[in-house]
Design a protein that fits this description.
The complex is a heterodimer of chains A (115) and B (114).
Chain A (H helix, E strand, L loop, with lengths): L3 E2 L4 E5 L4 E7 L6 E7 L6 E7 L4 E4 L2 E6 L4 E6 L8 E9 L7 E4 L3 E6 L1
Parallel strand pairs in A: 2-11
Antiparallel strand pairs in A: 1-3, 3-8, 4-5, 4-9, 6-7, 7-8, 9-10, 9-11
Chain B lengths: L3 E4 L2 E4 L5 E7 L5 E7 L5 E9 L2 E4 L6 E3 L9 E3 L8 E8 L9 E2 L3 E5 L1
Classes of the chains: A mainly beta (115), B mainly beta (114).
Chain lengths: 115, 114
């Protein structure tokens, strides 16, 4: 049972345009969400996060939006650059009554930004 | 430079053989993790450790074993009981393993079965 889903396996955009990557989740206990970026032959690196008490978090060209009622979050990249071409993973966590925050990852979306 | 080192980059396993994947970190992080990535699927947690000499099973621990004898090291053994070991394995660490800490990943080991 996939609790975090990225339904678009790939996305292609033109340089300078907006990239929108989507993520849906089913577990209402999730209260913290993260995006990771992965280049080929490298491990994922943290990009941006958002707590469930907020609906938007911005960091430079990257903005994450959270819609709790729809159990949906999205990552906006504006403007997109060729160096943004990578696999993007959405991840979610909940305290679950313990101090350990386990991350549940989506399948990833391959973003290609064309010059 | 601080970071996480995984070795080898590629590993081949013969049927019935146990293999061990290495993970070393010099970030002085308490918590370490092993994830498995299969094509078209998200990363799935195999084992995690929040402190030396202690570790817990993740979602897919069957057929795997770990040890945490040193803070810097968290090796993963893929045993012969793991019937479908071909996957990309990622090791990660975080400061204390607490909620909302971001993970730092190694560059992964691709394991294939001969």
């Amino acid at each position: 049972d996939q609790q975090v889903k990225q339904n678009s396996p790939s996305l292609s955009v033109q340089e300078g345009r907006i990239s929108i990557l989507n993520c849906d989740y089913t577990n209402s206990m999730f209260d913290y969400f993260l995006w990771y970026k992965k280049y080929p032959a490298e491990g994922p690196t943290f990009l941006i996060s958002i707590s469930s008490i907020k609906d938007k978090n911005e960091d430079g060209r990257f903005t994450v939006f959270l819609n709790k009622s729809a159990k949906h979050l999205s990552l906006h990249i504006v403007p997109s650059q060729p160096g943004d071409s990578a696999v993007y993973f959405c991840a979610a966590s909940s305290a679950g009554g313990t101090s350990y925050g386990k991350l549940t990852f989506g399948q990833g979306t391959i973003l290609t930004v064309h010059p | 430079d601080g970071g996480i080192t995984q070795s080898p980059k590629y590993l081949f396993r013969k049927e019935g053989q146990n293999v061990t994947l290495s993970c070393e970190q010099n970030l002085n992080h308490d918590a370490m993790y092993w994830y498995r990535q299969d094509p078209g699927q998200g990363l799935r947690l195999i084992y995690y450790s929040q402190i030396v000499n202690d570790f817990q099973k993740g979602d897919i621990a069957e057929g795997y074993s770990v040890s945490r004898e040193k803070k810097e090291s968290f090796p993963l053994t893929v045993t012969s009981a793991q019937k479908n070991p071909t996957a990309f394995y990622l090791c990660a660490s975080s400061y204390q393993g607490l909620l909302n800490e971001k993970l730092f990943f190694g560059s992964g080991t691709q394991l294939s079965v001969l």
